[in-house]
Amino acid sequence: MSTATASPTTLKALARDMRADIIRMISAAGNGHPGGSLSVIDLLTVLYWKFLKHDPHKPDWRDRDRLILSKGHACPALYTVMAYRGYFPKELLMTLRKLGSPLQGHPDRLRLPGIEFSSGSLGQGLSVGLGMAISAKMDKASWKTYVVLGDGELQEGQCWEAFMAAPKFQLDNLVAIVDHNNGQIDGPVDQVMAIEPLADKLRAFNWEVQSVDGHDLAAIEKALAKAQKAGGKPHAIIAKTVKGKGVSFMEHNIAWHGNAPKKEDADKAVKEIHHG
Questions:
Q1: Which residues of 173-184 are buried (b: 16+ CB within 10 A; e: fewer)?
Q2: pTM (2 decimals)?
Q3: How far apart (Å, rounded) are the C-alpha atoms in residues 212 and 254?
Q4: What is the per-residue pLDDT across 85-138, written as a single tens digit (0 to 9) for each?
Q5: Where are the domains of the chain?
């Protein structure tokens, strides 16, 4: 099932509240990745409320769409979305990275129902998603596979093998979404190992490509709606985002890639998210 009736106002409020919970849970854990979690949350919000066919009460539903968060270190965003969608109680969010918690530092499909792939080793998610998309084609199934990638992750060669293979198998049931926040642990992506011109490269690999503001909920929805069409080609959405989006002292700041805010900074961030 999906909730296609969610209004723009509802989605905006949800994204705001989930940003605050991302900060709270990472702060409570004492470690984690706030920057990339805040940059990807708008994309996941639109996916889970408007497009993804899924059932929180039947996470292994055969006809569900598959979603892989290849940039697994941003799992606080995915966990928060899953909690708000009813996969588990919201109170569990505060157990992030705690011993015995199903909410590990990277997604673990053996611990948490609703996780399709235990990601975190960057560069692998698109290949796994490609295999899922092929299996759907073989079964003549209607479900789609969505893979959310980081931009720094695209420096991995395995990604480009998958980008090359998907058009060969005419996987128009595969949607790759790049969280293009231009930040990775070692610095700006365009300085560490530039990936531009990304859209031109993917078109040359025979993908359908769209570029979108990754924080404009309406624009994300429009892009995902367009990606539903068949036509024999896989779909790529390059979402231009801001690392640390929503918290002024985190935005564009590589220092917040993998550092948890102390209580004082967390309180300041949550207040800003709610009140601007």
A1: bbbbbbbbbbbb
A2: 0.96
A3: 22
A4: 999 999 999 999 999 999 999 999 999 999 999 998 999 999 999 999 999 999
A5: 8-275
Query: Which tens digits make up the pLDDT trace of 134-193?
Result: 999 999 999 999 999 999 999 999 999 999 999 999 999 999 999 999 999 999 999 999
Q: At what angle do helices 8-29 and 263-275 cross, to 10 degrees?
A: 180
Tokens at residue 117, please?
Answer: 């792939």
Query: 8-275 has which CATH code?
Result: 3.40.50.970
149: which strand partners?
178
Query: Tokens 């998309």 map to which residue?
Result: 133
Parallel/antiparallel/unpaired status of strands 145-150 and 235-240: unpaired
DSSP line for the chain: ---TT--HHHHHHHHHHHHHHHHHHHHHHT---HHHHHHHHHHHHHIIIII----TT-TT-TTPPEEEESSGGGHHHHHHHHHHHTSS-GGGGGGTT-TT-S--SS--TTTSTT--S---STT-HHHHHHHHHHHHHHTT----EEEEEETGGGGSHHHHHHHHHHHHTT-TTEEEEEEE-S-BTTB-HHHHS---SHHHHHHHTT-EEEEEETT-HHHHHHHHHHTT--SSS-EEEEEE--TTTT-TTTTT-GGGSS-PPPHHHHHHHHHHHHH-
- Rounded to 5°, the CA angle 154-158-163 comes to 75
CA pair distance 207, 89, nearest whole angstrom = 39
Strands of the sheet with 145-150, listed across from one edge: 66-69, 145-150, 174-180, 235-240, 208-213
